[in-house]
Structures are given as C-alpha cells and as structure tokens.
Amino acid sequence: MRILQIPCNTPYVRKLHDGPRFSIVNGTTFGRAQVIPAEITFQFMLEHAFDSAFWNSFDIAHIHYGFELEPHDTVAEALGLISDHGKPIVYTYHEPHSMHGADDSPYQRLLTLIASQASGIITLTAAAQQDLQRIVPDSRPAVIAPHGYALNPDNPYFCRDRSQETDARVLLYSSIRRNRDLVTSTTNLLMGAVPGTRTTLLTRPAPNAEALKELSALLTLAFTSPHGTVSFELPLSDDDLAQRISTMDILVLPYLYAGHSGALEMAFDTGLLPVITNVGYLSYQCEIWDQLAPTHVAADWSDEKPWAYQQRLMAAVKEAVAQLQEFRASLDPDARRRYRREEHLQILRTHNEVYRAALAA
User: Fold this and answer.
1) How would you classify the pairing of strands 297-299 and 23-24?
2) Where do runs of H (alpha helix) occur along 192-307?
3) How far apart (Å, rounded) are the C-alpha atoms in residues 135 and 120?
4) What is the pLDDT of residues 78-130, one digit of tens each?
C-alpha cells in the first residue's frame, strides 16, 4: 500500500512505513520527474487535479495536521478530489486546538469535515479518542496507536547514561507560538528563579518585527545572564537536534494548551526529565510510560489562573532538580530501547490494519 502522508515533515510521520506492507510516497517522483513534497498541501492537490500520474501514485491519503493553514474551501475541494479519485482517507487526530494558533471555530470545522469523511481514524491516547467522539460524534471510532519514538532507539544519542553527572541543565525548545509561554518561562529561569540550574532556549530566528519585539527583552537578558543562553538554531536535522538535547537534563514544556507533543517523546528517548503543564493530552502520554517511572513532573496550568502559572512552573522545575539524581539512577537505556522497538512494531501493525480496512471500506 502506498501512503500519501499529509504532511510528512516530522519524525512521527516519517517512521510510518513497513517494507512491503506499506510505504510513504512523499519524496518520490511522478509524471515527468515531479516530486511529491514532504510538506504537501491541499493546494498542491488542486493544482494537480487532472494529473493522472499524481493520483495514480498513491493508494491512501493519510491526513495529520496543518490543514488549518489553508482556506476551508481549498481543503474541502481537495477532499472532494480525493474521494472522486477513489482514494480512501485516514485521519490521525492529534489535538483539539490548532498548534499553529488558528482560532478554534474554523479549526474544528475543518477537523469535523475531515473526520466525518475518513474511512479510518487513528489517535494517540484514550483521552483523545474520547474527545474526538465528543467533537465529531458521527465519525468512525478511532483506533489508538501511540506516538512512538521521536528518536530511533538505534541512534547513538538515545538515552545516554547520565548517572555520574551532577549538573542541572534545563532546556526549552520550540518556535514562539501562541499555545506556549516560552518567553516568560525562559526569562524567569534566566533571572535565576531556580537556583543551581543553567537554561538554554533553542528556537527559530524571529520571523517578523512583532516576534522580535517579544524576544528583545529576553535577548538582552540572555547576553548578561549567568544562568543560561538563547540560541537561534532551529530548525535542526533530527540527529543534530538529538545531539543538542542529549547534553541537557530537564526539558520544560510550558504549554498553555496542547494536544500531544513530539517534544515530550523526545525527552523520553534522550533520557531527559520532562516538566509539563497538565493541559491537553500531555499527562496521558506520560501515563503510557508509567512502567518505566518516574517519567515527569507536572505544573497545574488547567484552572484558568494565569497569574499563578509561572510560580507553579518554577516550583515544578525545582522539584525536577530535586528528583534529578534519583531519575538518572533509574534510567535503563536497554529497557527503553526494548520498549520503543516493541511499541514501534505494534504501531506499524495498527496502521497496517487501519489502512487495509480503509481500502476495503
């Protein structure tokens, strides 16, 4: 089975292939040496509406995220084309709110449109499965397949031994987005809110004047702070990102709202102790790993009292620092590798079943 992944630009999606059973067509050619983009858009489909070579290049369209970045009519028309060409849709539900900051109403209208037309639906946790049934009650029941590894367990940076280390190096990494409070969180850490730590913010260059204004005070502080640095290095290759993360100890994820998080999976794979906010499905992701606990420290950001959020987050980072030596001693890299390999095989089996059922529907 040939799967068109929409899009295919993250480690989560790029690992969804299984030799002769199913493969990814993104990055391959069709027609006169045209390439199917990794970050394929619905607009691209409309531009190739009458290109039989494109439509004959795949069997299933698997939609993940980013659809809210295109106009509703573009997505709707592309879904119609997929149906007209007899290609089933599989949809993986990741989050109830747009991670790119789109308003909820248009985002959920698109989510509902896609889920209602999907011949197969996958999601990552039981909590997400229940939410999707509430948001789109007439959709097919979702099958659960967890996120799985963000870093291949064969990678040399996978869960390296830190048992002899004593530092507490804190990492925040991401683009500046509406759904996370990176700037305030990093500022507090750079001002020494958690003694004995050194903080790194790994982010993208400011894309516009507004973002630069938001970052300017933080940058001024970073130049003089003895407590950490700000580095504009994203995006990095998977290996380069893993190398940078593997030199850290604690990953802070200050999400204001979220669904599931690939960064959280990367923390598990690189052996970092994550500090999360209890929003979205983050705590449910951590529950999957309870057999390999301790797995995380949580700050309560769920009660709509934003004036208390930073105090709680800094307290959670302090708790993580206090747990760090015990956490390091508890890490069993071989057990984590085995867990990830077995989990990955099950994820592939689940996708194979969903893909086959979608073709047969």
Assistant:
1) unpaired
2) 209-224, 238-245, 262-270, 282-287
3) 16
4) 999 999 999 999 999 999 988 887 888 899 999 999 999 999 999 999 999 99
